Amino acid sequence: MDFQQIQELIKLLSDSNIGEFKLEQEDIKLSIRTRHYFDTALLAKAATQPVSFAPPPALHMPPPVAPAVQSAAPAANTGVAKPAAGNETETSGKTITIKSPMIGTFYRSSSPDKPPYIKIGDEISPGKVLCIIEAMKLFNEIESELSGRIVKILVEDAAPVEYDQPLFLVEPV
Asked: So what's the pLDDT on residue 88?
């Protein structure tokens, strides 16, 4: 089994609901645990005791990225919430829901000792960073595409989020 086959196996497992996979061949032993495995373990732990959702401080800091690497990234994967792409939808006559453009872990600030990017009542404008979503060890800044006021933050800090999950309620200004 070569590296590319292992990568393909990991991708297949991450797209499924399989929590743990073990493979033993002549010269290789492979064990993979997916997010589903850890989510199930957290649920079991939560049933018996309180769970702390604070990530280790080292994982909460966005890694420095060289400018050449940033410019090489495709424009479609910028992590910017876009109304036209369906990431924001009307929920009532007065509020708009900003939804997660990806699966990952939601963070309100760049590190545990820093203040959150936004709070309830804050005014936002296009380009304003709202939060960070960590996906596969990459920290993606989620920026606003509209002007308004934050009415409600729908996700707890360091909580896992799904694609298209509501994150914020915004009152347009």
From this structure: 44
